[in-house]
Design brief:
Blueprint: H1 2-27, H2 55-61, H3 64-71, E1 90-94, E2 100-103, E3 107-108, E4 116-117, E5 125-130, E6 137-142, E7 148-153, E8 163-166, E9 171-175
Antiparallel strand pairs: 1-2, 1-9, 3-4, 4-8, 5-6, 6-7, 7-8
The protein binds zinc ion (ZN).
Length: 183
């Protein structure tokens, strides 16, 4: 009689355990995107076609804010971005695809509320004429993935006289391994 009870309990509990385990597995939440999420190219194949990805790809990869600014040409509110008054030494990358875009050596405080640079890593950005909002401006775009980054103006400091006005959400940051003392 005892044996039968044990067997019965066992035979009943095993499927229950299996159901529980599989339920747990299905319930596992998808990894959430944090606001700091930047996408490094390291985990993507080298010849990945960044330029021809659809909305769904970017929506999964980026935060909502990143998507609306970098993929739909929006603008973040001034003085809200993490890199506006950021002074560390390193390289600013594209938050969409990880391409290196600006050196911290060319960053300056423009007082506009957006990270500003007097030069870009030329081979990695593209400049496009932008006539939206009844203004004639030059849009700055990531050459690899086509992300909208911001605009460039002719009122910057020496030596170039350019002011690349860039949205923080379109940027990531790679610190230099050996940082030199700040001025
Ligand atoms: Zn990019």
């Amino acid at each position: 009689m005892k044996k039968i009870t044990i067997l019965l309990v066992l035979s009943l509990s095993i499927p229950f355990a299996i159901v529980l385990a599989s339920h747990k597995k299905n319930d596992k939440p998808a990894p959430t995107m944090s606001a700091e999420k930047t996408n490094t190219p390291e985990n993507m194949p080298e010849n990945f076609d960044w330029k021809h990805q659809g909305k769904d790809f970017w929506k999964k990869r980026l935060t909502q804010k990143q998507f609306s600014v970098c993929r739909q040409g929006g603008t973040e509110r001034a003085f809200t971005g993490v890199y506006n008054s950021f002074k560390e030494e390193g390289t600013f990358t594209c938050s969409s695809c990880g391409l290196e875009l600006f050196s911290s050596k060319t960053k300056f405080d423009s007082g506009t509320g957006w990270p500003s640079f007097w030069e870009a890593i030329k081979e990695n950005v593209e400049l496009k004429e932008d006539n939206s909002w009844f203004m004639k401006r030059t849009e700055v775009v990531c050459k690899r993935c086509g992300a909208h980054l911001g605009h460039v103006f002719d009122d910057g400091p020496a030596p170039t006289g350019k002011r690349f006005c860039i949205n923080s959400v379109c940027l990531g940051f790679k610190a230099h391994a050996h940082t030199t003392p700040k001025k």
